[in-house]
Amino acid sequence: MVRINLNRSEQLLKKCTFRNQQLLTTVAFKWWCTSNASSTTRKFHQQLIRFNNNTSNTSTTTAAACPYHKSRSTTNAMSTCCSTSSRSNSTVISDQSLESSTASTERTTGPLKSFEDIPGPKPLPLIGNLWDLLKNKKKLPNVWFLELCEQYGYMVKLTLPKNNILIISHPDLIEELMKKEERRDKLIAFRYVKEQHNLELLPIEMNKVSLPQLTELNGDFLRIVADQLKKVDSSHESGNGDGGEPKYLIPNAFNITSLYTFKAVTKVFLGVKVDERVEKLLPWRMNEFVDAAVRATDVEITLDTKPPLYKLYKTIEYKEMEDLLLKVFTGCREFIKAFDKNPNPDIPRLKDLIDERAAGMENPQRKVEGVLTAFINGGVDITSRMMVNQFYRLAHHSEYQEKLYQELVQVFGEPTPEEFTSEMGLNVSQEQYKKLKLTKYFFAEILRVDPFSYMTSGRWLREDTELNGYLIPKDTRVLVVNYYPNLKEEFVPRAKEFIPERHEKGSPLAPKSLYISLPFGIGARKCPGSRIASTENHMALINLVRHFKLSHGNPQKFPEPMLDQSLLYIDTKNNPLYLVPRDHLKPVLEQYLANKKQQH
Question: Key word ATP-binding present in the record (predicted)?
């Protein structure tokens, strides 16, 4: 190993003049790199930075002047990614962006700024920004964090007594974080309950399980929709023109979506359709199970934005969440006991994949039960909100209903009454599913403009981490508010317009980064249920568009999301949603509803 004389290199650098400074530093840097002195490379790199800063009178940034950064830079300059606020320390400058490419996670001397230098609301002594959190507790956390981004820029700090919070919203910062730190930000309260009751969760992969199972629910979906319809006099109801055709009101779209998503999760996981026969095996009715899962998710997220007092004593909210989760867990255990064997071995199900992964591990059965609990707990509520948004987007954009209908006819042929009357409904093969372009673009655009949350899963830092020129301390909780750049022209052309075609490969309107719209997260810690949720929504769209025309009560304005729960949603009771059956379905639907009325 070649021994490097640090004093000699300093003397050599000091002899150079401003005129030949750049050339000399480049030569010195190359000589240093070839010396294999890896343990002191960064020290020399810092010397180059300090020397350039001390001798240059130009406006050249630190990173731009340093040959190390020139050779290692992988991120774009972010000099324009700051807030327009007059606070100078909120500016995210280009040398910070470039310096982050060193990817060092250890504390070093040099130009790195401290966590305290990041803009954010002024902390109080001892309690930091805890009072700010409590003061804004009535606001949806999504909303307050979005307001902080608008006020302070793409990096915002919150100082707390135990774990600090860093809020980031620039796509480049999000990408940098995801590549450096893989420990996903979890629902702490949910994790705490599972630890207390030994409910384990095993990571799994979906592969090709979701489509073969979900296509068998297409007939069920249409009948779930029909069961919720209420016929109205179209001449006295608002909505898009329907020519006086038979028109039906959906009193509450969530009654449709929550029931369907529950059936979808249990179908993918256990390979069984939940009907009246299956429901009798449970200790309570299906709608009670669904309500418990939905409410538990809401309480979990609410608790996660508050100080964890439940670790000191069981708060009222914590007790409610614990009771709800245990109820869901008990139901999952009964499900698994009843359907331990696959009712249709020809079609793979998720439980079998998890059984394989859990084999040989400690408490394998608890792991299987834990996965199903997590899927039902998160999959029912969140996927249901996505699906309701899709209902309203279809109703609001009648021009896309026709475009989608034409694509579906091209792939599957003309719709038939048998898709409604048969047990399975329309069969969707893998080959047909791959051909659906606009269908998938439509849902992707919904996730972009109508998120169920302004945030996506962030990260817990396991060690001190350099991010955009700042040294972020270990155990900082990093929250990602990716909705903030989502509607900015800087990152998405015509960002505030609903244009599904922007998601087509090569579109000039495409988002400029993969890290702009991340409803399910990204990378190794991406939500494992994303495949199920996406396929469910695609199936719902296929069946709705093939058999109905949709409209809503105020075609001039898309409904605003409600902010009184932990996640965003559309108030379906105050935003009437209407369906008009297509010609082939009209007599079949009328007969179905008449028979149902006689039975009751």
Answer: no
